[in-house]
Amino acid sequence: MKRIVVAGASLTGLRAAESLRANGFTGELLIIGAEPHEPYDRPPLSKAVLAGRLGTDHLQLPVARGLDAGWWLGRPVTGLDLTSREVRAGADRIGFDGLVIATGAGARPGPPGTHVVRTRDDADRLRRALAGGPRRVLVVGAGFTGSEVASSCVDLGLPVTVVHRGATPMGSALGDTVGAVLGARQRAHGVDLRTHTTLTGLDGGRATLSDGTRLDADVVVVATGSVPHTAWLSGSGVSAGPSGVDCDAACRVLDTHGDVIPEVYAAGDVARWRHPRFEAPPQRFEHWGNALDQAEVAAHNLCGGPRREVTTLPAFWSDQFGLNIKAIGLPHLADDVMLTQGSFERRSFVAAYGRGGVTVGAMAVDSPRVLDGYAALITERAPFPPAIGATDSPALTTVSGGPA
């Protein structure tokens, strides 16, 4: 194999390139990225950067020595021709023997004049706006990103209103039982949290909400999810669209007939696949760990090693309102959730998630180290509710409806 192209210069693209070299690829390696910046760390954007504790110039990821890659930055890919085995970047056509699709996802855009937080430039713009001392910040969406932005505003001493379509913050990921606890934490920190509410209009600094109220907000941040970068694949024969690029657990990209496309792989936020450990439909996993795992598996398989699949449990974390929140497995699949350690009334607790009598996920607040044991239960498809028997397990646990 003479040339491998990595489409995407983020964490996923960088790790894929490094893994290709580690797996013995000695040919030409080209990394094409839409942003002008070298790969950088994204999680701090909505936390340390907005709060002013870290500048975006300190986020650059280290690059392995001897990578020997060509970098095309600020050059988004614009098309793919599988017949000629070429990627298009503007007027340029780049031939390839192997391809890793790692173009990631972008923030779902809001109305003109609003901010999003997905890229380094997004964070810089929003940081400048917050540093100007707005009278009120309006955050639209109380998922993980929206909640982290609100937490950063609180750290800065800025009044913040959060509107959320759902019943509780992060409820779609963690369920409304846990979401209600996290929502109470937000309100205790002074957040004006309004659930079952959306933004319906914006006129200058005047926002209209779905409940009919109007409020003044100098800065509006929209955090309503992401959109995978797949438009460049339209008409290519790749099975791709608004839900991502379809691939299997070995990261092999599928065509529109569901067949594997030789030597074309996908990894990271753009990849949509069925995790082999769960009875669940194909989905995207926008987590740091998944980006690394898929990048390494894609590179290994592209180099012709014995076929590997991604089997690591999904895991994600968030730091907000003085809490560390960590989850493993797929809590959003659950139809039941149980408090297994600690107490909702206290700062520290653990909850387990089940579906159809099987343990599928767990989350911990300020107790990240205990999740290793829960990971084993999820991997083993242990019965739900699980038998924990920890010293801080509640004497009487109640089971409530989960996210599903």
How does this structure look, described?
The protein has 404 residues and is α/β, with parallel strands linked by helices. It folds into three domains: 3-43 and 60-107 and 226-302, FAD/NAD(P)-binding domain, CATH 3.50.50.60; 120-222, FAD/NAD(P)-binding domain (3-Layer(bba) Sandwich), CATH 3.50.50; 322-400, Enolase-like, domain 1, CATH 3.30.390.30. The protein has seven helices and 27 strands. The chain has helices at 11-22, 120-131, 144-155, 171-174, 176-188, 288-302, 371-379; strands at residues 3-7, 28-33, 70-73, 79-81, 86-89, 92-95, 98-101, 105-107, 137-140, 160-164, 192-195, 199-203, 206-209, 214-216, 219-222, 226-228, 240-241, 244-246, 252-254, 260-266, 271-272, 315-320, 323-329, 336-342, 349-355, 358-365, 399-400. The longest helix has 15 residues, at 288-302. It is globular, with a radius of gyration of 22 Å. The chain starts with a strand and ends with a strand. The mean pLDDT is 95.
Sum this structure up briefly.
InterPro entries: FAD-oxidoreductase/Apoptosis (IPR050446), FAD/NAD-bd_sf (IPR036188), FAD/NAD-binding_dom (IPR023753), FAD/NAD-linked_Rdtase_dimer_sf (IPR016156), Reductase_C (IPR028202). Its cofactor is FAD. This protein is an alpha/beta fold.
CATH topology of the largest domain: FAD/NAD(P)-binding domain
Across the major sheet, the strand order is 3-2-1-7-20-19
Structural class: alpha/beta
Q: Spans of 5+ residues with little confidence (pLDDT < 50)? A: none
Q: What Rg, in angstroms, do the CA atoms define? A: 22 Å
CATH architecture of the largest domain: 3-Layer(bba) Sandwich
Strand content: 25-35%
Instruction: Note the total helix count.
Output: 7
Question: Taking all residues together, what is the mean pLDDT?
Answer: 95
CATH superfamily name of the largest domain? FAD/NAD(P)-binding domain
Domain Reductase C-terminal: 316-396
Keywords: FAD, Flavoprotein, Oxidoreductase
GO molecular function: oxidoreductase activity, acting on NAD(P)H
Pfam families: Pyr_redox_2 (PF07992), Reductase_C (PF14759)
